[in-house]
Amino acid sequence: MAEAKEVKIGVKYQLEKPVGETILYEKVEPHIGRVTLNRPDKHNAILTPEMFLELRDKMQLGVDDDDIKVIIVRGAGPSFSAGDDQGRPPFEAYGGDPKIRPPQSVRITKMVQWVKAFNDATIYCPKITIAQVHGWVIGMATQMVDACDLAIAGESLKYAHLEQRIGFAGLLPFPTIIHKMLTLGPKRLREQLLTSKVLTAEQALDWGLVNKVVPDADLEEETLRWARGIAMHSTDGLVIGKMQTMLVLQNLGMGLMETANFPIHALFTNIKWRADELNYLKSRVTEGGLKESFKAREGRWKDKSGF
Length: 307
Fold this sequence. Notes:
- By secondary structure, this protein is α/β, with parallel strands linked by helices.
- It contains eleven helices and nine strands.
- It has helices at 50-64, 90-93, 104-121, 140-147, 177-195, 201-206, 219-230, 235-251, 254-268, 280-286, 290-305, and strands at residues 23-29, 32-37, 70-75, 128-133, 136-138, 150-154, 158-160, 199-200, 212-214.
- A six-stranded mixed beta sheet has the order 1-2-3-4-6-9, sandwiched between helices. A three-stranded mixed beta sheet has the order 5-7-8.
- Helix 1 (50-64) runs parallel beside helix 3 (104-121) and helix 10 runs antiparallel to helix 11 (290-305).
- The longest helix is centred in the middle third of the chain and has 19 residues, at 177-195.
- The protein is globular, with a radius of gyration of 19 Å.
- It starts with 22 loop residues before the first strand and ends with a helix.
């Protein structure tokens, strides 16, 4: 009998390529830089912490080039990004597994390091940012889109907070909850998080989550058209305007939410599951793998709610 193949998820999970190849930066033309999430076979899933740190470094290349006025963020392959890589989510990245419970100090300090890198790359980027989105945009990827100044979508867009079904249950542990509250209002924000419904491109446009929808074949050129138009502004004016936007967000509680979310996420990783609740993150390690656990999770939701 052949031995069962070891499922390398959890603390054993590793990137399939050097981290420097998972996120790319290029200067497309004068004044316009472009960052590409480059794990197309994985729907550009974001592995913590390596890709958070890499995203910060690649975005910084555009920030440091004074000629760059606009940075486009896009995904290679069929999707913009499926969000956090469930092969090794943050809890496991700092050493947790079904038998190991890291101390709160580790949970908080590691999240401070990683999340600040993500926030510096996105929310606090002093250049104008445009998300060029298509296919799946899930969980952490929605935070990236929310943090960009503008978002242009292809018709294939599927925007969803499916990460809520692993236990977040209405918790959005990132300061971009300020963006979402301003965009959606309290009721739609809670609807999006608690139901985890998938929004189409047109629904995302109607809800104010993207600025324009075009056929996928036109997406790259349309995004560049917007970037070229914005680049007509003065460099100094754009940066000053971005700083004012950041000050407004800080006045609305952005900094407070950033700090509060570190202990909040630590609390989330200490959830006690009841007997009739599916602990998805545990089951994918102990009961046969990622795909099987995902199917079981989504099947339960569809059977009970139809969402």
